[in-house]
């Protein structure tokens, strides 16, 4: 003990305090971090808060939200999507602030017939305005196992990742007049609901209620206060490759939709 200078002791103390705060933010116990807010007993926390399940039947879907709001951070969670015939179902997983000028960072998983691919739909809303959709196929079956879906959000950038592979980046382009979410704290939300008017093949395939209840599962939540992380050159390359191979819709190339010209962030 005599070998420790008082400054070492202080820095150990500071470190453990910071570590404590950090652990508080990133605790994986779902009871501590979320409330089931919709769907009565269709949303469940199981195994001492290690697993959360949402289900959907003909009467209702279900949903949960985080107890606290985040202003920046890297939010990771593992999801296992509705297996089998999930056509017509949508699992939404997103960060959102409140009010008409809200910001939002969106993942939506559009179900499909057994063996047909899910679509991962993404969007970014800033000050109440979205219309920035990009959609992807995945390179694995998202119903067979848990996979990690992440949203990195800091003052410089927003990155959507799947199993640590970036699929989309929305950079801060305030310098060219594109609003960026940076003042409104957001909560994390997820819900499982019926959207068979549009979800699967544009609404052609309807939900088969004989397969209900439909269930999606969640575990290993983490929220880390990483304020400065950016994609390095190798990750930028990987992102471009993923987009070439798996992106199936990009608002920035949809000329029909923007006859008056593309939004500024598309240039
Ligand atoms: C469902 O499968 C069809 C046929 O393979 C495909 O065109 C479509 O993109 C898939 N996903 C959704 C959500 O419709």
TrEMBL record:
Name used for this protein in its record: Xyloglucan endotransglucosylase/hydrolase
The protein's Enzyme Commission number: 2.4.1.207
Active site: 104 (nucleophile), 108 (proton donor)
Domain GH16: 1-218
Modification note: Contains at least one intrachain disulfide bond essential for its enzymatic activity.
GO CC, one annotated term: apoplast
SUPFAM superfamilies: Concanavalin A-like lectins/glucanases
Residues with glycosylation annotation: 112
Origin superkingdom: Eukaryota
Family indicated by similarity: Belongs to the glycosyl hydrolase 16 family.
The protein's role, per its UniProt record: Catalyzes xyloglucan endohydrolysis (XEH) and/or endotransglycosylation (XET). Cleaves and religates xyloglucan polymers, an essential constituent of the primary cell wall, and thereby participates in cell wall construction of growing tissues.
GO molecular function: hydrolase activity, acting on glycosyl bonds; xyloglucan:xyloglucosyl transferase activity
Location of the protein in the cell: Secreted, Cell wall; Secreted, Extracellular space, Apoplast
GO BP terms in the entry: cell wall organization
Keywords linked to the UniProt accession: Apoplast, Cell wall, Cell wall biogenesis/degradation, Disulfide bond, Glycoprotein, Glycosidase, Hydrolase, Secreted, Signal, Transferase
Span of the signal peptide: 1-27
């Amino acid at each position: 003990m005599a070998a420790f200078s008082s400054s070492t002791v202080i820095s150990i103390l500071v470190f453990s305090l910071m570590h404590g705060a950090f652990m508080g933010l990133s605790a994986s116990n779902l009871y501590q971090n979320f409330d089931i807010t919709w769907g009565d007993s269709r949303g469940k926390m199981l195994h001492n808060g290690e697993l959360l399940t949402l289900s959907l039947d003909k009467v209702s879907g279900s949903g949960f939200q985080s107890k606290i709001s985040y202003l920046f951070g890297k939010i990771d969670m593992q999801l296992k999507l509705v297996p089998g015939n999930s056509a017509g179902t949508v699992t939404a997983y997103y960060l959102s602030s409140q009010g008409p000028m809200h910001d939002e960072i969106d993942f939506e998983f559009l179900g499909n017939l057994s063996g047909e691919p899910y679509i991962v739909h993404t969007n970014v809303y800033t000050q109440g305005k979205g219309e920035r959709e990009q959609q992807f196929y995945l390179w694995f079956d998202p119903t067979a196992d848990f996979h990690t879906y992440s949203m990195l959000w800091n003052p410089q950038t927003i990155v959507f990742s799947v199993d640590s592979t970036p699929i989309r980046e929305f950079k801060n382009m305030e310098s060219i007049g594109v609003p960026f979410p940076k003042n409104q704290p957001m909560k994390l939300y997820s819900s499982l609901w019926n959207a068979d008017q549009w979800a699967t093949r544009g609404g052609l395939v309807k939900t088969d209620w004989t397969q209900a209840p439909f269930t999606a599962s969640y575990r290993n939540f983490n929220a880390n206060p990483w304020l400065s992380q950016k994609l390095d050159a190798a990750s930028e390359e990987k992102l471009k490759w993923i987009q070439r191979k798996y992106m199936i819709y990009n608002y920035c190339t949809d000329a029909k939709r923007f006859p008056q010209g593309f939004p500024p962030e598309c240039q």
